[in-house]
Amino acid sequence: MYGFNGVALPNAIVARLGGLSNILSDLGITTFIGGGSQFIFTYLWLLLLMFIAFTLPNTQQIIEPLNPEDSEQGDALFNQGLFHNTLKFRYSIGWALIMSGVLVIAIFGMTRVSEFLYFQF
C-alpha cells in the first residue's frame, strides 16, 4: 500500500522475507495487519486491467469502421496490430450477442440499491 504516510506491506508477506524485512524497515517501509493473498490478488487484477487498458481498443477505435473519414490512425498499441482487425465493430451476430449481454448486465445492475454519492452537497 502506498500513500502520503509512506509504503506498507502486509505482515504475512514481510514475515516470509527473512533478512530482507530488516532492510525494508530501514528504508522506512512499514507493515500492517493483513493477508498477503488479498494484496497479491489486488496487484494481479491491476496487471490484468493495465493489459486491457493498453492493448484493447477504446470506443473510438471499435466504432471507427462506421465513420472512417473522421478517424485518425494513432500510434497506440492496438493500432499496431495486436487485435487490430478482430475487435472492429461490424454488424454481425457476435457483436449483437456481446451488446445484448452488456445490456442485460446493465439492466440487472440497476436493481441494486446504491447510495447517491453527492447527497450531502
State the main characteristics:
8% strand; 2 domains; 121 residues; three-stranded mixed sheet; 5 helices; mainly alpha; elongated
Layout: helices, strands, pairs:
Layout: E1 2-3, E2 6-10, H1 11-14, H2 20-26, E3 30-32, H3 36-55, H4 59-63, H5 93-109
Parallel strand pairs: 2-3
Antiparallel strand pairs: 1-2
Total count of strands: 3
Spatial sequence of strands, sheet with the most strands: 1-2-3
What's the average pLDDT?
A: 76
Strand content: 5-15%
Question: Helix/strand-derived class?
Answer: mainly alpha
Count of structural domains: 2
Largest sheet: 3 strands, mixed
Low-confidence stretches: none
Helix count equals 5
Succession of helices and strands: EEHHEHHH
Estimated radius of gyration: 22 Å
Shape: elongated
| Fraction of residues in H or I helices | 40-55%
Structural commentary:
The chain has 121 residues and is mainly alpha-helical. It folds into 2 domains: 1-55, no CATH class; 58-112, no CATH class. Helices cover 44% and strands 8% of the residues. The chain contains 5 helices and 3 strands. It has helices spanning 11-14, 20-26, 36-55, 59-63, 93-109, and strands spanning 2-3, 6-10, 30-32. It has a 3-stranded mixed sheet with strand order 1-2-3. The mean pLDDT is 76.
